[in-house]
Amino acid sequence: MEDGTFESPGYSTDTCADPFVWDTREDCDVRQILDRIADKWSLLVIALLDTRSLRFSELKRAIDGVSQRMLTVTLRQLERDGLVSRTVHPVVPPRVEYALTPLGSSLHETIQSLVAWTELHQDDIARARQRYDDAREPQSV
Amino acid sequence: MEDGTFESPGYSTDTCADPFVWDTREDCDVRQILDRIADKWSLLVIALLDTRSLRFSELKRAIDGVSQRMLTVTLRQLERDGLVSRTVHPVVPPRVEYALTPLGSSLHETIQSLVAWTELHQDDIARARQRYDDAREPQSV
DNA sequence: CTGTATCCCTCAAGATACTG
DNA sequence: CAGTATCTTGAGGGATACAG
């Protein structure tokens, strides 16, 4: 298992010496899952749910700009992927709790690392953008 | 009424007391940068460029399914954000090399961790999806 | 409260063609 | 080779209304 970088999936007879090319095919599972996880809303939901389980309305309030529809869609996808669990409390005003599953929790560390990086370097990026824009658009207005 | 859910932190001030709620606002830098980095193609480009610098056509070939346009757009964004450098060699057949900047390199570890997680758990996810789909669609056609 | 269903529209992105 | 420019499409996602 630790025999190398990322085990190059033998999906074809190409250069097996590739270090980081996990899989270049579009339909591969990794690409597909990556797209799901790296999703705008998924990322936020997972990060929020690590603190504690949250109700639908709590999530909606916590995530500025998310529509009811997109939150529902996102939660369904995460539930389907086994990252989030959905618990319905059969009370009069419906109460639904969302929580990370163990699988979802295992993702959280990575996501936090991504968020941490972003927080740490947001100024660098802002400066880089400034520099780039200045260089490309010297004509003011 | 106090927003009890997440102590709505003084956004104007700092959020140093919050564990994971980096910022809930839509227009915040972190959210914006996150969207950029977590982008479908950006992720792949950054991962690929860590190995070595690559030419435009090499990237295009390495990333299955990316259109010329999207690769160009992605590279421009990454360049603007200071994550990728672009070097034009003034030779007859134009030769443009893309490489990670130090800032881009610092991101790579995190991205690899995300990819590694995905590779590690893709089977779990596939099973979870199977279970979910089986439960929701018992009526076979 | 927690959704589902519908309509509708924007904008991301693919295809194509053309330049340096 | 490495783009840029244009056109077109379609799917993502918002708004709204309704149901359990």
UniProtKB/TrEMBL annotation, chains A, B:
Q: Which PANTHER family match?
A: TRANSCRIPTIONAL REGULATOR, MARR FAMILY (PTHR33204), TRANSCRIPTIONAL REGULATORY PROTEIN (PTHR33204:SF39)
What are the entry keywords?
DNA-binding, Transcription, Transcription regulation
Q: What is this protein called?
A: DNA-binding HxlR family transcriptional regulator
What's one Pfam family the UniProt record gives for this protein? HxlR
Domain (HTH hxlR-type): give its ranges.
Answer: 28-126
Q: List the InterPro entries hit by this protein, alphabetically.
A: HTH_HxlR, WH-like_DNA-bd_sf, WH_DNA-bd_sf
Entry's Gene Ontology molecular function annotations: DNA binding
Q: Which organism is it from?
A: Diaminobutyricimonas aerilata
- Note the coiled coil stretches, chain numbering: none
Instruction: Determine the domain of life of the protein's source.
Output: Bacteria
Q: Gene3D superfamilies under this entry?
A: Winged helix-like DNA-binding domain superfamily/Winged helix DNA-binding domain (1.10.10.10)
